[in-house]
Amino acid sequence: MVPLPPGQRSVEGFPRFGTHLHRPPPAVPDDPVIAISGVVRKPSEVRLPELATLPRREIVADFHCVSGWTATDLQWEGVRFADFYRAFVEPVLDPEVSVSHLAFVGLDGISSVVELQDALADDVLLADRVNGGPLGGDHGAPIRLVSPAQYGYMSIKHLCQVEVCSALPAHRLDRSIIGRLIEGHPRARVRHEERHGHIPGWLIRPFYRPLIRPIRALCAKGTQDR
User: Where do the coiled-coil regions begin and end (predicted)?
Assistant: First the structure.
């Protein structure tokens, strides 16, 4: 058995978790799309049925929350993001622009900024199924990003937009007081314990861990499975 990353503890099941998840998940549009914007020659949209043109991929991976819990051996199904990028993003890129970051945006308004090298890792998926069934609203329906090597806040649920960036997109960063206090690391690699943008991961473990129970209770109020 591979040991868990530093500071992580396994939990039963796969909790719904996030500071904004006291609300129910967003409704799934009748015709969901993933919009491609940013430094592209022309903004475009990819309808979810178009993903069927890409090879399917299944992975078994742990999901690591930055607060310190880990859901183990989740079975994800979908398409590799690298395949999506090459099929739908590269054809609309401005050839004179060098891409450095991607911003992933969900229907719930939550976003993450991921360095291109991390987004194109072999195990990063656009997933539409988990543990043998369709993705439910609590975990990101109709489709979500899954980046197993990074903390969960990078793996945006209810994905509806990919913004292509040639530099760090400052407009996607939370500059509020709370946002600065819990500022995420730009790479958020679990094995390196990159929990925070400025503070060593081991140092903030004791502050994050007590938040697990109250945030989980708060999330339960908005769950679809109530």
Answer: none
**What gap in Å lies between CA 118 and CA 49, rounded to an integer?**
25
Record the tokens describing residue 145, joined without a space.
């990003």
Domains of the chain: which residue ranges?
9-13+27-168+186-215
Per-residue pLDDT tens over the stretch 137-193: 989 999 999 999 999 999 999 999 999 999 998 878 776 666 666 788 899 999 999
E-state strands within the chain: 9-11, 33-38, 44-47, 56-64, 69-80, 101-106, 111-115, 125-130, 133-134, 144-146, 159-165
In single-letter form, the type of residue at position 91 comes to: P
Write the CB contacts of 91 (distance below 8 Å, at least 6 apart in sequence). none
Q: Please report how many Cα atoms fall inside a 13 Å half-sphere around the Cα of residue 116, on the Cβ side.
A: 15
Mean pLDDT of 196-223: 84
Per-residue pLDDT averaged across 65-80, rounded? Answer: 95
Q: How far is residue 129's CA from residue 127's CA, in Å, rounded to a whole number?
A: 6
Threshold 0.70, pTM exceeds: yes
pLDDT, residue 94, reads 87
Tokens of 63: 């999901």
- Distance CA(207)–CA(42), nearest Å, equals 44
Q: Which residues pair with 161 in a beta bridge?
A: 35, 105
CATH number for domain 9-13+27-168+186-215, candidates 3.40.190.10, 3.90.420.10, 3.40.50.2300, 3.30.70.890: 3.90.420.10
